[in-house]
From TrEMBL:
Residue span, Myo-inositol-1-phosphate synthase GAPDH-like domain: 220-324
BP GO annotations: inositol biosynthetic process; phospholipid biosynthetic process
Record family assignment: Belongs to the myo-inositol 1-phosphate synthase family.
Transmembrane segments: none
Domain of life: Bacteria
GO molecular function annotations of the record: inositol-3-phosphate synthase activity
Organism: Streptomyces viridosporus (strain ATCC 14672 / DSM 40746 / JCM 4963 / KCTC 9882 / NRRL B-12104 / FH 1290)
Stated name of the protein: Secreted protein
SUPFAM superfamilies, per the entry: Glyceraldehyde-3-phosphate dehydrogenase-like, C-terminal domain, NAD(P)-binding Rossmann-fold domains
One Pfam family per UniProt: NAD_binding_5
Amino acid sequence: MSAEPSLPTPTPTPASRLGVWFIGARGSVATTAIAGCAAVAAGLHPPTGMVTETPDFTSCGLPPLSSLVFGGHDTVDCPLPKRAEHLAAGGVLPHGLPSAVHAELVAADREIRPGGPLAGDTDGGPARTDDDWIDVFAADIRDFVRRRGLAGAVVVNVASTESAPTDGTLPPSSLYAAAALRAGCPYVNFTPSTGLHHPALADEAATASVPHAGRDGKTGQTLLRSVLGPMFLQRALAVRAWSGTNLLGGGDGAALADPAAAAAKNAGKERVLTDTLGAAPEGEVHIDDVPALGDWKTAWDHIAFDGFLGSRMILQTIWQGCDSALAAPLVLDLARLVARARERGLSGPLRELGFYFKDPVGDGPSSLAEQYAELRRFAERLRDGADDRGARR
């Protein structure tokens, strides 16, 4: 693949603004993140769920929330203000918030460019090659940074889960990931889609001049598994079986109704148990599309384990929540952390951000407590030499 000169590493100033370029920019997660960022920056709501707004991350030099400028790619044309109204009607966003941050939603919507590829994307001429798509996407990102006078941009994939590729071609998530690198931008894959994990991008990912992190955000069921798995191991309790079911609607439910997409999603859930317990226990994870649930989901786990003298016991958990509201603050965390990592001259995979992912890049612990300890040490690295912006909003 051809390579164009990437954007130079920015020299940040207190007034610098940072771009956040969402793949899936009109989806529930991106809309919630954009509206939530505006609300927190304006003091309308507290930063609940944002790890980077806790004391451990004070004075790390993270970009203020008020400095973030949003744009992205999407294949749908529902305007962000209308999408926010739908989310408010479903209880995902607070009543009245879409009106309160209408200007910010309109501004972000103006920066959304057509995504792809879709069936029939030929514009009446020959079909675009993978390299053509990468060039188009990278040009969109570079244009966004230059027009808006930004210090740089972070590309974050929050699009619907895609099936794993089977024919060696680059799926859309990998085209966007390659475009981020070509544009000289840090990249975060918050989905289980292939992204930079494609074999054709392995060398580029390993030698990238910008930091990248992923994949598959850890927001609910797997978050609990990364806490409970170590508990059983540390208490020497033998887990015999661990089964789970997810009921969800909305775009994720529809996307994951595809067995191939569901398999990509479940792989990360099961990997956490294998890495933590040393072997995969009996049991599977099932995902059921229930359109009536909208953006809400229920995750149920049934854990069979042995205690002292072979006594058989059961632990069941039920997690009911809104995935978009769980994911949005983590997405904002990651954009800020990865942007700061680039300012500090870091590049390549950031294993220290495994706290946020089901299937993190690089080798690292699977226990949430150990991952958080790594994240705190990473915050110390970012704090060294931090500029005077601190973590103010």
